[in-house]
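So, who can interpret the following?
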Amino acid sequence: MNVMLWLVCFFFLYTLILAAQPLLAKEKKEILLGASLPISGPLAMSTVEQKWAYEQAVADINKAGGVFVKEYNKKLPVRLLIVDDQADPGKAASAIERLIKRDNVDFLLGGHTPVHDVLPGLITSEKYKKVYLTAFIWIPMFLEHNFKYGLMFFFDPGDGAAEPYKVFNTLPQDQRPTKMGLLMEDSADGKIIGDLVAGVGEKFGYKVAVRESMGLGAKDFTTQVLKCKEAGVDAIFIYTDPPECITLIRQMKENKYGVKFFVGWKATWPAEFYQALKKDAEYVMADGFWSADFPFPGCKELGDRYFKQFKKGSVSIGMLYSLPQILFQAIEKAGTLDGAKVRETILANEFNTMVGKAKFNDKGVGLFPQVLFQWSDGKLETVYPFEYTKYKVKVAPPWDKR
């Protein structure tokens, strides 16, 4: 009889355990984010800010108790896993696959460059139906794949190319440049940027007088300098890496050639650029994605935190911080960690970020204006967007009058 009673009790408990399995499986202790970044390799130095921004966003949400998920009726802490892809597209794809299959990440944050890791990450995450939210990819490249799980938050390069001309047109006629010189690195991106700057310039009434390529790693740009000088170029647009740009400016000064405006993409915003040239970097203009002077909650504090740790400013951390910021708000609005539902929520809502309001279209594209700066007294002053600054762009005087 005791044996029979024991068996009845055993099967009763066994049935209860089986019935509870779906509930136990649904329990969740954390939200797991994954990212593949070039922590080592040729892009390691420029990846520091991205890694830092992602980590700060996660640390900040965890200080607030985590992200509330209605599905679990509680706040869940967030854990971030970052894998080194060494700027290798194949390794980037493998890293994303491991994060999904082995680590079971809930969502993915984007890589550092379009070709090296962003596109491989998007394609791999799409295969496994995992949401991948990224910056650093051009709109045509993103739209070509018609992603159902990918989302991009970046600027429109055509709008970015127009910004210097919009700034020029705020000046009196006699201060505006008249002849443009385009010095673009010898790469696919260099050609794309050059074509955009030239085409948009014509719409604003500015024509290109000289267009020259710049060899990657080259040490002598005297030919480019003299061609611009002989043509009377008074505004130079450059797309290259900082070392080549620093060399070019030094050779401009050696040849007693200056311009009213010197506009750089990717080359002129690093603190190391100013440290190398000191006063010769004054008046140089630079691109960027964010400013600590923006009037949005948390911008100044984030900028101060970065400066305290690295003793320099950043033009990108706020934009990168915005990616997990958008994701956390979307999870709370969706009330679930279901990727498809979270992506639908991102497409249907507006979000508060470090670069302002974020709104995505039905293709998964969210845009914000690129930022234009000018070096003044050793600081990057915001020139554009106009609504976020009171600073007025300055015309560079000749070398001997600086």
About this structure: Confidence is low (pLDDT under 50) at residues 5-25. The longest strand covers residues 31-37. The CA atoms of residues 3 and 9 lie 10 Å apart. Residues 31-155+295-367 form a domain with the Rossmann fold fold (CATH 3.40.50.2300).
